[in-house]
Amino acid sequence: MKSYRKELWFEIKSRRAFINITPQVNECLRASGITEGLVLVNAMHITASVFINDDESGLHHDYEVWLEKLAPHEPVSQYRHNGYEDNADAHLKRQVMGREVVVAITGSQLDFGPWEQIFYGEFDGGRKKRVLVKIIGE
Question: What is the pTM of this model?
Answer without folding.
Answer: 0.95
